[in-house]
C-alpha cells in the first residue's frame, strides 16, 4: 500500500515537472477521488498546480454534482467543465440515441474538444490496469498521436520508472498514476485515509427499475417509463459511477465502508459488470480507447 | 479463499498493509504457455470474476486454441490483434494476491521482434519465471530471455518446465532439461534458480502438488513465490534522493520532492547536493500531509533544509559522508529498441533518474550475440541488439553502477527529433578519462583572435545533394571574402576524405563520424577567429544539429543548396549518379541513401533556378545582416 502510494505520487510529480500544460480528468468516482487525494499529497503544502477537468455528459447522478462542488471547494483547485455543444444541440442522450452513440458524442468527442481547447499536453486519468483487458496492456505514460489516437501495437517501451515525456506539437500523453492499483486497494486506501466519496457507493433504499436483468436507478424525470411501469424501492449501491442510465446498481446491504470492503473482497462479479458500455461489441473498450476514450 | 466479514476489517487491513508485493515476469519461447500459466494462476487464486469467466467461455469458442477446454491464455491476451493471432505482442500487467503476498505479474511476449516489450516488463521485476516447454527443451528464445533477465539485474529465476503432461510426466526428460539449463546459466549472476515441473493447462504443481509427478518433492510454483526472499538487504545503504520537483508555494517554504532511491534520512542529517557538492542539514521531512521522523528507500517525500541552497530538478541529495559518483564518461550495456540503427557519434537525449542530458555513444566496445553471448565487433546497433558501449554526456551525471542501484544506474535514450525511446542502458562504471583530461585554460580568447582579424568568426555550412553546386558556390564566396580582406578557410567533403577522414566509408555510421570530425575541425578554426566554409552533403538532420550545437548562437549558418535531384543527375559532374544507378556505387545519397532536407536553414538557395553569382550575393547579404 505504501509502495503503491509512493509510486503514484512519483508519477504525478514527474508528469507535472515535465509538462507544459497539465490537467487532471476528474470523473467524481472513487478512482478520481483517490487520484485527487494523491495529487494533493504530492504537492502539499501547495495545492496541485493544475486544474481539474470534468467532461460532463449531462447525465451524471445528482449526488455526483453535489460531491464535485464539495471537493473543488476543499482542494482549492480550479474546475473546468465541458459538455459537447453539438450533443446538447442534438439533444443526445442514452435513452434516445443508445449507449454507444451517447458515449461517443458526449464522452469521447467531448473529451477531445475540451483537451484541444485547453491545449493540454499531459492529461491525468484514473484508469487502472485491473479494470479491463486492454487497460492491462497500457503504459503508465501513454503516448497519444495527434487526434488523441492510441496505437496499442506501437507503445513506447517504458523501462523502470523512467518516463519519456517528450511530445511534438499536437501529440499528448495520458498519465495513469494509479495503473497498478486494484479495486480492493482503492477501497482500503479510501478507508485508511478517510477520503470523501459519493454516498451512492454505500447501500441505501433507492428507486430502481429492472431493465434487461440490471437495476437502473431513476435519478431524474428523464427516465422513459413504459406504460404502467413504476420504480420500486430497493436497497442498492454502485460499484462504479458513470452516466446514471448506463450504470447498474447492485443489490447490497453494505452501508459502511467496512461492509463495502468485505463485499468487494468476497465479490464474484467484476466491477465493470454494471457498465453497460463495455460489452456492447467484442474488444469494445480497446476500440473506444483507440479513438481517444480514457 | 475465506469470506471476509465487515467486523474483521481492522485486522484484515493490518494484514494487508504488511503484505509484501512481489513483481515478477513470465518469459520464454513462443508457445511455451506463458499466458496460459498466468491465466491458471489467476484462475486458481480466485482472481477471475464470474462475468469474466463467462466472457472467457464465449471467447474460448471464438478464438480458443484448446478445443473444448477453456483457453486461459485469453484472460491475458487483451488486444484484439493478440487474440486473433494467438500470440502476445505487448506486456500485460495482472494482479492477484494470496494470504501472504500481493503479486504484479508482467506477461511478456516471446517473439524476438517484441524484445523491447519484454525488457519493459523485466525492468521492474524482482523475479523471472522462465518457461520451457517439456517437449522442446532449452531453445534460442529461452537463452535470449535469460540473457536479458540477467542483464536487467533480476537475481531470482524459476525454471518452469511446462507442458509435462505432453511428455507423460517423465522425470528423465525433466532432469535433462534442468541440467541443460543449469550448464547454460552458470555464467549469469543469478542468486537462485528453482526448477519446477508443471502443467499450466491442467494445473499440476501450480497451486497443488501433482499426483502425476510423485517423483517431484519440491515446492509448487505458488508455494515458492509465496516464500522466496527477493528483497535482500543492500550491501551499502547510503541515502540517495534524486530531486524531482522543487515545491515553492510561498517565500517561506522551499521543499525538495522526490522518491528515495536508497538508504534512510532523518531530520538533522547532513546531506550533500550533487553535482555542486554543497552540504546542508535536513530540517524536516514531509510524507504526504504529515511530518515524519524518518523516511526510507521507496518513500515519496518532501525535504526542507536548514539553509537556502541552490538545488534543482535533476540534482541528487546524498549522505554527506557517503556521496555518489559524478562523471561524464561511462561504460554501459545498451539495448537498442528501434529499427533505425544506433550510430556512434550521433547525439541522443539521455534520461537517468530526474536528469536529462545530451549523450553520444563514443565507441561500441562489442556487440553481444543475444542467443550465444559471443562478443562481436560492430559499427552500428540494430533493433533488439545488445552491446557494451562507451558514452559521453554533455553535463556530469550523478550515478551509481546499475548493479548497486537500479534508479541511479538505469537510463533511456531518446531520439532528439522523433522523441521515440530508442535505447535502454545500464551503467557499469565511469571512465576516468574526464578527470584526467582537463580543458587547458588558454589565455587568448576567440574574441581577441577575431578582433585582430577585424571580423566575426563564422561557420557557413553548405548542405545539399551531390552535384547541387555547394562547392562551386562556396569557392566563389571564399574568393569574394578573401578579396574583401577576410580570413577564411574552405573545408570540402572530397578533400577531407583524402586526408583526415580517409579511413571512413559511406555507411550511415561512417557518415555520422565524417561529419563529427569536420564539425570539430570547423569549431577549432572558428575558435581561431576564421570564417569557415564547410561544403559537405551532410544528409542527416541530427548531424547538422550536432554541428550547430558546437557553436555559439549566431555563429553557425546553415545554407541549404536546394537543387532538384533530376538537375543534379543531369549535371552528374563526377559521373557518380550513373554509377549509383548502375548499382556499382552503394549508399549514394538521393539514390539508395536518404537526404533529410533542412527544416529551418538560415539560407535556402534554390540553386536550380539561380545563377552562382546570385547565390553568392544572397550569401553575402545574409552574412552582413547577422554580423
What would you say this structure looks like, in words?
The complex is a heterodimer of chains A (294) and B (627). Chain A is α/β, with parallel strands linked by helices. Chain A folds into 2 domains: 182 residues, HUPs (Rossmann fold, 3-Layer(aba) Sandwich), CATH 3.40.50; 75 residues, no CATH class. Helices cover 35% and strands 15% of the residues of chain A. In chain A, the strands form 2 sheets. In chain A, strands 3-2-1-4-6-5 form a 6-stranded mixed beta sheet. Chain A has a 4-stranded antiparallel beta sheet with strand order 8-7-9-10, with no helix packed on it. In chain A, strand 1, helix 2 and strand 2 form a beta-alpha-beta unit. Chain B has 4 domains: 222 residues, Rossmann fold (3-Layer(aba) Sandwich); 80 residues, Elongation Factor Tu (Ef-tu), domain 3 (Beta Barrel), CATH 2.40.30.10; 107 residues, Elongation Factor Tu (Ef-tu), domain 3; 181 residues, Rossmann fold, CATH 3.40.50.300. At the A-B interface, helix 1, helix 2, helix 7 and helix 8 of A face helix 1, helix 3, helix 4, strand 2 and helix 5 of B.
List the keywords.
heterodimer; A: 294 residues; alpha/beta; Rossmann fold; 2 domains; 6-stranded mixed beta sheet; 9 helices; 35% helix; B: 627 residues; Elongation Factor Tu (Ef-tu), domain 3; 4 domains; 18 helices; 28% strand
For CATH, the homologous superfamily of the largest domain in chain A is named as HUPs
Strand tally of chain B is 28
**Global geometry of chain B:** globular
| The CATH top-level class label of the largest domain in chain A | Alpha Beta
Q: In whole angstroms, how far apart are the ends of chain B?
A: 79 Å
Low-confidence stretches of chain A: none
Approximately how much beta-strand content do the residues of chain A carry? Answer: 5-15%
Q: Average pLDDT value of chain B?
A: 87
Average per-residue pLDDT of chain A, rounded, comes to 87
Shape of chain A: globular
CATH homologous superfamily grouping of the largest domain in chain B: P-loop containing nucleotide triphosphate hydrolases
Output the CATH class name of the largest domain in chain B: Alpha Beta
Could you say which structural class the secondary elements and strand pairing of chain A correspond to? Answer: alpha/beta
